[in-house]
Every structure is written in structure tokens, then in C-alpha cells.
Amino acid sequence: MLDPRNLAALAAVVETGSVTRAAERLGCVQSNVSQRVKRLEDVIGEPLLARIDGRMMPTPIGRVVAAEAARVAAALQRAEANVAAARTGWPPLRLGAMQTIAAVRLPRLLSGLRHLAPEAEVIVEPGPTDEVVAALRRGQIDLGFVAGGGEGDDIVATPLWSERLVRIGAAEGDAEEGTLLVFRQGCSYRRLALEETKLRLGRTPKLLEMGTLDGMIGCVGEGLGVALLPLSVIERSAAMERGEIRRVGDTAIDVRVVAIRRRRETPSRTAAALLDLAEADVAA
Question: In this structure, are 166 and 229 located in the same domain?
Fold first, then answer.
């Protein structure tokens, strides 16, 4: 078992190049640092440090252990900060969201949260609907914003904005209707776009899968195919402003965006504040 205190002693020696300076940094005596490094070497079974030109340097295995020690120390610092924030302030918020929602809806909410709680930390993990839902169930995120699904026995879904999906193609020339640009598997918009295109064309279109929203819009502008995207995204698109893409046909599919959270957990102060901002944005 690797003791975090022993790892911290090794990391301090490697960073300072001296047992003396490591002891000063850690606020202990030199013998304590030496003993902790020795215990770590006993566990690993190999020397971790060597004196070279008067400086303590890590051995090859020592460099590996020291790197891991630095990561452990950083994780412990984050954990301490998170616990302190959860008890007295604004806990960090891990947020999952579809790319289109992250691009259009989240910036205004995050700006409002910044004014309300400047110290609140938010980590946004973009992904398709199914991945956001799965991450919520696994406890990897605290709150999610998805469209066209999400609610279940273990998940509460709060209805928010209504998005209208429209079909877009290149501004010049005939739109390549036979190729449909889509996000990766698990995206609710992908499923809706495929169903609509199959019904309209009477056949399955060729798919061009894209990893990013900007990439999809860029390929549409180059005439590589058509895509179904929220009108709110298209209206804010720089490609639309530059005249590179246009709306094609009269396709209009309305989809509800929802905020999802675990049913058996009370939202943190930060999550509750963001939900309030979202509901206020819908009502505005």
C-alpha cells in the first residue's frame, strides 16, 4: 500500500533536489523525510533516489513514482477544496450537455452563475444524449442538459427550452440530400434526423459522422451533405452570417430540452442555482 505521506515526501525531494529543502517545505525534520522515502523504497523494492553531483535525483523507477505522487497530491488538494466548498460555499458542478446546448444555451446560464457565485467551479463535459444520461447514472456528472429523452425511475427531468430542428445545406448549388451529416451514436438529434430523412427519401441516406458542431456546419457549407440542427444554433452561426449555409426545405421538428438529475439526490447549491437560472431563461 502506497502511503500518500510517503509519496509527498518523495515528490518534495525530487522537486527540491534536497532532503533538507524537502523537510523545510513539508514542515518536518530531515530524518522524517528520509524515513518516509525509505518506507516507500521498501514497498517498491527498488531505490527511488540517487545522489548525483550533490543533488538528490530520481532513479528511472523513482521518476515514475514521483510523477504518480504529484498526481495523488493534486487529487488530494482538489478533494480538500471540494469538501470545504461543499460544507460552506458553492460545491464544484460537473455538468454534461449536448454540443448544441453547450453552444447556445449554456453561455448565458454560466454567465449568470458567475455573477451570482464567482467562486463556483463548473466543469462542462459535452456529449450526445445517451452518454450524458449514462454519465449521470454512473455519478460522473451532477447535472445534465439533453434533448429528446433522459427521464427514468432514477432520473428527474425538468422541461426547459423547445428547440426546432431544421434542415440545412450549402448556400450555393443543390444540397446533397443523399448524404446526412450526423453526430456520433447516442445523439437524439441523430435518431430524429435519420428517421425524418428515411421517411422523406424512402431510403436510408449515406451518413457522414462528425465529432464537433463546427465541423458539421463547415462540411455542410462545403456541400458535403445536409444536416438537421436546432434553428437557435443556425441563427447564431457565423457560417449563416457569411452566407455559406442556408435552410433547405420546410422540415421542422420540435424537441424539448430537459435538465436531468438523480432522483434520490438533493441538488447541490451550485446545481440548484443553475437550474433556477435555466428556468428563468425559459420564462424570459
Answer: yes
